[in-house]
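Quick entry between incubations.
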Amino acid sequence: MLVSEMAETHSLRLPERRRPRRTQVERRAETRARILAATIESINEIGYQRTTSAEITRRSGVTWGAVQHHFGGKDGILGAIVEDSFNDFSAGLAEAFESLPRKTSLPRRIGTFVDAAWEHFGSARYRASFEILLADSVSREARAEPERNDLSWQNEILKAWTRIWHRLFPELDLGRRRTLMIQHYTISTLSGLASLQLLAGKPPPFLRDELELLKKTLAREFRGAGSGNGKED
Amino acid sequence: MLVSEMAETHSLRLPERRRPRRTQVERRAETRARILAATIESINEIGYQRTTSAEITRRSGVTWGAVQHHFGGKDGILGAIVEDSFNDFSAGLAEAFESLPRKTSLPRRIGTFVDAAWEHFGSARYRASFEILLADSVSREARAEPERNDLSWQNEILKAWTRIWHRLFPELDLGRRRTLMIQHYTISTLSGLASLQLLAGKPPPFLRDELELLKKTLAREFRGAGSGNGKED
DNA sequence: CATTTTACATAGTACGTGCAATGAAAATGG
DNA sequence: CCATTTTCATTGCACGTACTATGTAAAATG
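Done. Structure below.
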């Protein structure tokens, strides 16, 4: 389905007052959102390669001039998608943390944590980000461009992850090394689920059980890791 | 490093008898291997996008005519990589199974299984296959080409996986649904590790520990799943 | 209402990419 | 040693893609 059909499907039948005098910020926000949505949709439906500039304009219903104005170019769209995805992810984790009553049991905290994380990794936007980063990051180091964009998103995402982690599970003391290992394992599994969904074209059939299995694994690793048990390396 | 430098680094200094009268099968095998190796290397180093036909000929040291002759075109190379990767994977698992003495303990069997599986998922060839499939499979369903190539590699890989699985762990009876779930979970984690390695550009720092954690998880799930315990859905 | 700024539209273009077409060299087989 | 097949090399080209350049409409500003 084309994004352009979402908001103005019947606009052809109502030619009177087609544009009800929208304000600039409204226009700006809507076209930006349409471009981003169209790009994400296209990447998920036909893949990164085939998501061309023409395809984006076709799906979004806007012209290339709009893209140029708002994002500068195609790279601008892709960068914005990755950035938004990451920001919403941090916000979502923080929100899940806030909405949790004080002194919730460890398994329950793990549950909400994994669920909130999957809210991110399971989204179409993350899948798009994944393809974008994959297509971009590998080639970036070849060009020897050390920084330029979001100064190594990897460190950023790891930092945010660790921050939330420590706030959610303050009593844990597994040692820095083991903590990072379990974090990386969790990300691997969740991102792996997302990437397999990309390859299969449909969500994993046993998704819920797999998330439960991950929770169980985390719970097991956390058990017996109360304050003071960790050994730093 | 260029693949073309591997075998004929000093050939410029020994112009006499440059080509010691190789047989056809030798020539064929070598150039094919060089092309495949160059493509895999390129995908891992500079990414799928930048792995152009020119880049492949540059790294392999052969011309486009050779590629055309052996693979028909670029798609031929990519397809061969995926196919070879999958075949070697099945062979590797089977071999690991054969080399295992009768009545090995369950944890040890799990260990060799995970290690053998990572031998596959951790290889540069798999990472290349992953990018190829990602770039190709998503766009294929958009073009509505139901079969054509290896008739849904997904089913094939799942079948082979299940086949080995049942030979390695014949006493398990978790029920079909739960078995498939755990398989998918294992693939997700391993493939996730591989994809994160692609994004990071370097192998995961805690790889060994993460594999151990996966083994532990599997062992725990298998425990108490002797013959007759499974419940079919 | 006039002016300035912002938001979008249209047409043309430079460039990379994969490949077709053709030919030469190398090996095989008699 | 010759004919045939296999293997590899060269050149030119059609095509898609992202983008530049420039023009127009719409909203803000006073």
